[in-house]
């Protein structure tokens, strides 16, 4: 059986990962970004027309005011609408969702490994600390990549413009001055990433202390006191 100190370190690591999964799960169900732009039926004349899109990962809402003539608000399935427009936004959004699923999978692996280590001692196998380091660092790195890819998709591609034009239909519409604001769902990736790294740190501190203790116990005999060497 593992020591109480080891069990506490690994259970604390499992708790940190569990909280991170809860945060990511909530983040994936709430709003990630809002894009706003001016809208007109004429390329040279922009009056008070506007279009706003709010994004969750799977659902969103498009609100059009005088864009180009009539307005309205409707709920959309983001990936379904992106499939209709095609191109880079669809690919990037699919990658983001796939990577988030991998984050959850890595976190699940971290939780299982830490719980197993809290009641066992598989130090030299993939079910030991090495497995935890791999899963948790994978979660942190993948979530950081998602942060970058999502910004690229919202800011640098024409995802929002394509969705508005798709919603308008066959009527010509001109869009400009797009601005985007990222919401709580996006920013919750940051505490998820931090907690994944904390899970690693908690186990590393125990492993480092245990290694130092073993090294002290294995000092060469020449470091022993002289009175002990006389026996």
From TrEMBL:
The keyword Transmembrane helix applies. Pfam families: Clarin-2. It comes from the Eukaryota. Keywords: Membrane, Transmembrane, Transmembrane helix. The keyword Membrane applies. The chain crosses the membrane at residues 7-28, 91-118, 130-152, 184-206. This is Clarin 3. GO terms for biological process: sensory perception of sound. It is a multi-pass membrane protein. It is found in: Membrane.
């Amino acid at each position: 059986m593992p020591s109480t100190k080891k069990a506490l370190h690994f259970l604390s690591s499992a708790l940190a990962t569990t909280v991170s999964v809860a945060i990511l799960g909530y983040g994936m169900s709430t709003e990630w970004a809002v894009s706003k732009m001016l809208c007109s039926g004429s390329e040279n004349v922009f009056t008070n027309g506007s279009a706003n899109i709010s994004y969750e990962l799977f659902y969103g809402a498009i609100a059009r005011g005088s864009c180009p003539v009539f307005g309205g608000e409707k709920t959309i399935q983001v990936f379904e609408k992106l499939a209709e427009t095609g191109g880079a936004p669809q690919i990037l959004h699919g990658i983001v969702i796939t990577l988030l699923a991998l984050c959850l999978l890595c976190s699940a692996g971290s939780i299982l490994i830490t719980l197993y280590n809290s009641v066992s001692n598989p130090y030299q196998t993939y079910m030991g600390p090495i497995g935890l380091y791999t899963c948790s660092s994978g979660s942190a790195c993948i979530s950081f990549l998602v942060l970058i890819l999502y910004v690229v998709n919202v800011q640098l591609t024409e995802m929002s413009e394509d969705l508005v034009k798709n919603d308008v239909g066959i009527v010509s519409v001109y869009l400009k001055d797009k601005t985007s604001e990222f919401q709580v769902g996006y920013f919750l990736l940051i505490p998820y990433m931090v907690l994944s790294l904390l899970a690693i740190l908690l186990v590393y501190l125990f492993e480092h202390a245990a290694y130092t203790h073993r090294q002290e116990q294995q000092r060469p005999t020449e470091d022993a006191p002289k009175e002990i060497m006389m026996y």
